[in-house]
Amino acid sequence: MPARTSRLLRLTVASAVALGVGTSTALAAPADVGAPGIGDPYYKNYGNGGYDVGHYGINVAYDPSSDLLTGTTTITATATQDLRRFNLDFVLKASAVTVNGAPARFAASSHELTVTPATPVISGGAMTIVVTYAGVPSKVSDNGIRPWVKTADGAVAVGEPEIAAWWYPSNDHPRDKATFDVRATVPKGVEALSNGLVKRITYGKTTDTWVWKSAKPQATYLTFLAVGQFDVTQGTSASGLPWINAVASNGGQEGTYAKADLARTPEVIDWHTRAWGKYPFEATGGVAPAADFGFALENQTRPVYTRGFWRNGPNIYVVVHEQGHQWYGDGVSVHNWKDIWLNEGFATFTTWYWSETHGEGTGQQILQEVYATPATDAFWSTVIGDPGAGNEFNGAVYDRGAATLQALRNRIGDPAFFQVMRTWAAKHRYGNAQIADFIALAERVSGQDLGRFFHHWLYTGTKPAATAENGLDGVSPTAARVAAPKSLDKIRAVQKVEVSARH
């Protein structure tokens, strides 16, 4: 899908300064050379300039015994400028590259595969890039990062923002979404799970090949592969949505709880649909591998969960959180990684609202508990509208992020608030947006000037004052409720696992 450049927003000068509104462009490069980065201020070499990807055809073979992955990925793209050279994000070893059928020269450096086509590609021209490669992903480190998860019987390609480069070459940034086909050949009897719908499974003498298709625009980091021994179940929800779940066959008691909660995924999806609008994708489900990698990730159509979420029993809240991301994070993706509040704060708020509609504590009660955190606590020092590279998954982005939405709900009222949330999900579906876009929408729908409100909640490292302007009229600055919401420990347990794993 073509990369998007956010439209200019009409904000007051004061709001623009307070909110840090600006534009970002790809790293400077000669006019006929694609930039090595897409222009994200946090990760200068993530994504690439000069082309837009429409489709990825990923064809890999994986051997669990050696962790060797071999592959050929075909990328269909369109040049957005004249290109005599361009980059792909990739860390494995490439052995051959072709562009439009002709062998191309290529050179590898940290996180980058630089490709020089035999014939330059003109702006607007079609590009078919084929990369052949091999490597042991678990042994590859880039700036100390090793996102590939090896399990006892396979592996899981799962991570945020890094994972794609460890198993396929790409324009690795949420701004350049595409459709995907994933073909994975594995030893006979081993399952290979990915996004979307399984198109076919070919059973051979010594290997099996699983073919998956994602038909809707999808960010690169949300594309996953899980290989191992799984118990796979599937069906169709009452609303007609296909679902596929997979839980590690040796999951033990944790696996039993995981199966029960994942079986409720259609129920969770239907609840989200009533709250936020149409489900954006063609399938749903979940995967719980035999591994403790410490977090869940909202992979499009099929989140992947660490087994530790079920160590202490059932945990429907983690399913609600990850499925909430299908609207907020997957359907609508960040423009830059500093916009992460639009993902994690929103998904956390969906768990607050689930709690409210299931009699375990209202959003207002949970807000009171969060707001009771002392002003001197480091919790309030994180500027969640711009948390900084490597700090995107700070606990405050989750809790203070959800508190911002509940406070907005208080400030503008339920009718306007839910109209904002549903319009956001529909207006930017399959695309990207940034925080300034959300602020503009909230102001337009509510008819209110919300510049100071969002400045206090998103762009200061201090606790917002308990005022009506901040959506906190009647909320005590210090006193927690006599009885904490039943859901609070469950919601915080989800965040505690994720935050500790990512730092």
Automatic annotation (TrEMBL):
Named cofactor requirement(s): Zn(2+)
Residue ranges annotated for the Aminopeptidase N-like N-terminal domain, each copy included: 55-222
Keyword terms, alphabetized: Hydrolase, Metal-binding, Metalloprotease, Protease, Signal, Zinc
Catalytic activity: Release of an N-terminal amino acid, Xaa-|-Yaa- from a peptide, amide or arylamide. Xaa is preferably Ala, but may be most amino acids including Pro (slow action). When a terminal hydrophobic residue is followed by a prolyl residue, the two may be released as an intact Xaa-Pro dipeptide
Residues of the Peptidase M1 membrane alanine aminopeptidase domain: 316-457
Catalytic class of the enzyme: hydrolase
The EC number(s) this enzyme carries: 3.4.11.2
Signal peptide positions on this chain: 1-28
Family membership: Belongs to the peptidase M1 family.
Protein name listed in UniProt: Aminopeptidase N
Organism for this UniProt entry: Luteipulveratus flavus
Lineage, broadest ranks: Bacteria, Bacillati, Actinomycetota, Actinomycetes, Micrococcales
